[in-house]
Amino acid sequence: MNKLDSKVPTGNISEKWTNHKFNLKLVNPANKRKYTIIVVGTGLAGASASATLGELGYNVLTFTFHDSARRAHSIAAQGGINAAKNYQNDGDSIYRLFYDTVKGGDFRAREANVYRLAEVSGNIIDQCVSQGVPFAREYGGLLDNRSFGGAQVSRTFYARGQTGQQLLLGAVASMNRQIDLGNVKLFTRREMLDLVIVDGQSKGIIVRNLITGEIERYSAHGIVLATGGYSNVFFLSTNAMNCNATAIWRAHKRGAFFANPCFTQIHPTCLPIHGDSQSKLTLMSESLRNDGRVWVSKFKNDMRHPNNIPEDERDYYLERKYPSYGNLSPRDISSRAAKEVCDEGRGVNGGDAVYLDFRDAIKRLGKKVIEERYGNLFEIYQTITGDNPYEVPMKIYPAPHYTMGGLWVDYNLMSTIPGLFVIGEANFSDHGANRLGASALMQGLADGYFIIPYTIGDYLASYKPSLVETSHSEFEKVENQIKDFVKRILSIKGKRTVDDIHKQLGRVMWDKVGMSRNEKGLKEAITQIRELRDEFWRNVNVPGNDNDVNQTLERAGRVADYLELGEIMAIDALERNESCGGHFREEFQYEDGEAKRDDENYSYVSAWEFKDEFKWELHKEKLVFEYVKPTVRSYK
Amino acid sequence: MTNKNLNLKLKIWRQKNSSSIGGFVDYDVSVSPDASFLEMLDELNNKLESQGLEPIVFESDCREGICGTCGLVINGQPHGPVPKIATCQLHMRNFKDGDTIWVEPFRAKAFPLIKDLMVDRSALDKILQSGGYISSNVGGAPDANAIPIPKDVASEAFDAAACIGCGACVAACKNASAMLFVAAKVSHLGLLPQGQPERYTRVERMVAKMDELGFGSCTNTYACEAECPKGISVKFIARLNKDYIKANFKSKSYDLVEEFNA
Lengths: 636, 262
Fold this sequence. Notes:
CATH class of the largest domain in chain B: Mainly Alpha
Structural class of chain A: alpha+beta
Strand order of the largest sheet of chain A: 5-2-1-9-17
Number of helices of chain A: 17
Number of strands of chain B: 7
Distance between the termini of chain A: 42 Å
CATH topology of the domain at 268-400 in chain A: Flavocytochrome C3, Chain A, domain 1
CATH superfamily of the domain at 268-400 in chain A: Succinate dehydrogenase/fumarate reductase flavoprotein, catalytic domain
CATH topology of the largest domain in chain B: Fumarate Reductase Iron-sulfur Protein, Chain B, domain 2
Low-confidence stretches of chain A: none
Number of strands of chain A: 19
CATH superfamily of the largest domain in chain B: Alpha-helical ferredoxin
CATH class of the domain at 268-400 in chain A: Alpha Beta
Oligomer: heterodimer
Number of domains of chain B: 2
């Protein structure tokens, strides 16, 4: 019995969203204020959804664990946001952005969702400009574009190397306006710890007040999760220190299916690891690959200074292997190629790093132009490493960055629990097995500004859900479970710190569920994760108590969830006997090492249902490609 | 990178909560020069936790200098001795073996202390929630290229918009003034054509809110610019003052017209 109904509308792909919008039920303007909607998270998706739902007149309650909405990790996105504006007259169109995204995702995304994303992409830029987002401009005053991986057109809008910051500040400003007008109420320093379901519908959330430690209850007619991705399962990732999977994971354990958990993106251009005390990895924007050339020595363990390695002894391996996309090959392919040359011993000084070199670009364009384009990124690099990238090539290495997987949602972005919507990186919907650069910002804002405001109205008008009082026995029950969970963690008083266990989990995930995977390693990973989970619950030490600021307790709860999520990531990777996008199974590759997809057997979304303590049932949503016919994804 | 570890003495402010009395506590650490300042505190906290002791509470998130969550006063300077970076970007190679380092929270009347090095900076958001935006509903925006904006104007607006909301300007100011923070937002939006309709009401409302929340006055010491991790210029404060004066005239003359009409 298939429990998954994607609700993709019928008709031509270019008319699906228009027709669907017409068919969606509307809530009368006067009735909107009678509906309360909870939004969890204030990144691009959450802030834009809160703002827009507030504009429509809903009563919005927005939650963030940060002290301020503006801290959400969307703020750190550097490079840009894609939109099919065709301002460059280089042949871009909605269809081309749709095509590139489906292909870039290695044919594991839902066509209708991707088309809609491309369709609203232009409106996002319009909206952002009207809010005062200071995008880069040309001398004539019109908007400038740059190129990103996986595309042969220039469709990426940017604001220096701080595009995410400017887009988020725009969305948060719109939300602030709704706070000013009284339509949105923002609750900061609250972490969602559970979801309350009454009669099969999402009715509320349980949060912990991170200052007082109090457990609080909130109820609503509909709930929107916009809580981001789960790359921090790897411990070291480009995610912020506090990014976590707790909200989506606890919702998963209450019945929301988790889709494609093994689809994780390893970003090719991050700073290499400096040592054991490393707390996170820093991304260097993909935009650097517009002008930087990636290379390693042709010889193993070459200890020479990079500037002393002559031209003919350098291997520009991306340009060599993928001549038509070269240094702008998609992320999964570039990352794997870096791993390959480093595994051969040809990395920087024989280690895990490759060069990203601006020598030729500086020669061609002059230092001033390079400084204008990437000045702040070069500064960041120099601050962290102490090297000057104008003179010495950057050293980079891949790192966990983005998770394409997430809670399963239908075309309306509703999960398998009625009334629970999931937007942005937290859902699985648009990127398939690999996300293209500058598409995360696009998806977050598309979901928040242009999709959820329509689809949640349809839910409210069709289901007419009631508001459950927070004194309801179900709220009581869930709150008590959370209180017990907190007490249990605090009472263990074992020997290992939370970070220590998290780092060990991260190593297992990186070695065996990371850039390249195989059956044996995945099976070992599953066993090791289970053992580590047992050890956590026997031997973790969380000092302090629960009625005060307790950052260790916050991290402990998140790590407890990673220790479960890690297992389903490995199970999912083991089940998917093919290589596609970010999921590379060593057993499934062509002779030249390229990923070998199996469309006949694996052209589906894996949606996992949590049955009982660590038993999952797999549901499959078959993917149908009516427009972009799956082919070998070549960037050669 | 196999540089020798640095041995340092840390004097860190610890305080249970806003109503208790705080003080400096000494810690000895040995740290790699390649580690960041916050990674050093992570290591120290991990050691404290492994001894069952409560770790030092401090805030950070992106660790890339953009989210504005982190903020420590290090040896008397907000975000430490290196100019134009946030605390999370400060690396230990900027210190010498044997150094003593003093670590304190951002201190300002409008930033009440929560615990140890963690303070409440929500007053900054309250200012932004008093008009610090352009009113533009989703659905009504014209094409993004409909209004060309000269490159230098967009660029100057960006310089102001680069503020990360960390509050270092307030912590650096002897009056705990938020003028640079407010000026940055007023200028970002006031420079752009989209921000013109609300330009003068915006500056009046934001300044009124700033005063209401207990931030001090600006006496032009420029300490804010010196400590700003994004190097936001005090010229924006001049811009704010200009707009504020104009706004006063405008609302006054508006009142006169109202009076006349009545």
